[in-house]
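Data availability (excerpt). The following record was deposited with the supplementary files.
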Amino acid sequence: MLAATDVLNRLFATDFPPVRLARDVGLAVVNRIEPLKRVLIRQAMGVLGNQPKLVRGERV
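Predicted structure:
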């Protein structure tokens, strides 16, 4: 998680034109593909993937 946060920070902090272009195109593509957008949002919210039993409502 720390590495992913660092990559995102560097990606959005740079003004290097090729990186900016790739970032902007990538965001536009994700914004237009609703199923992908929903999956990424759910992943960011923490409702996808491996969750602890307590989060899933199961007995610990």
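Summary of structural features: Residues 2-56 form one domain.
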